[in-house]
Predict the 3D structure of the following.
Amino acid sequence: MHYPTAAPERYNNIMSSLTPSVLVSILSLGPLLAQPKGFTNPTPPPEVTATEIPGVIAAGAKWTLVWQGNANADGIVGTDDGGLLFAQEQLDQVSKLDKNGKYSAYLKNAHGPGAVSIGPKNRIVVVERTCTDPGGHKGGKPADCTDPTGIAALTPERRVLANSYNGKGLGRVNDLIADKKGGVYFTSGGAYYISPSGQVSTVGENLRTNGITLSPDEKTLYITNGPVIAAFDVQPDGSVKNQREFGKLEGNGNGDGMAIDATGRLYVSTPNVGVEVFSPEGKNLGTIPTPRSCITAAFSGPGKKTLYVAMMGAVGPDGQEIKTSPDVRNTAMSLYAIPMLAQGFKGRAK
């Protein structure tokens, strides 16, 4: 779940084809990097079915495409009404897919949102990537860009929670999880915690971070660390201790987004692999294959028993795979859903 944004006017030409019937999703290219040459377009998705993971998913369960488009849709999170919120960096907005699959712009006061979390009193918090990497067209960060990246609450009104640590900018912020105390954990190269009073501190050491989440009881913090998952014991003040390796991902893949279910099982979206499922003890229980390379996952839908995953690539209104030239990052993405035996944790949005 890595992505930034430039001001929306830069995207008018690119995004004018988007309509409410078009689905959007985001791709995850890693931390703030110079835009490389020779981007690879996603390949058309094959039809895939799940093999059984006892208590998690039934054999033969199939993915359903629920939305797609040519702008990103990252950092997805379920809503109380069975819908889904997702960050659309290139559009400078948080969008919503309701339980019936209807798409709408939900909040337009974000500055390049890259991931969404919902905290106490339904406060919506996002990572803001501003204009660090527009995507979707030639060129990288605009020369006149001065909008700092950071973490911001968008409701009840927009308020920046953090945009620096020890006097230095945060770089291209990645993912976040709001805790029940009013604090926020987030990743940006390393990992950080914003206390309810606004103090920013670091989390862990020697981490190559991406996704981040909390156990249902919020006593354990999980962070993807390249091909492994790191775990930490959360202290009453939000600080952590006892950094350790929780689990290993299959096929040397690097973990991206994460979700948690009611029993504490962890779901890790691993690009080019699928959604890997871990027991609360860290045992890899198996992988749910995905039709496209996946980057972020969340439970929602009736009874919170549907797993939604954002994946790279999409088909355009003409029925053809959306492609870009080799010097343009392809931000087209799709949202898929699959029925689960497992139930998402209802005590927190994600």
User: Anything to note?
Assistant: The chain has one domain: 8-36+47-339. The domain at 8-36+47-339 is CATH 2.120.10.30 (Neuraminidase). The chain has a mean pLDDT of 87. DSSP finds one helix and 26 strands in the chain.
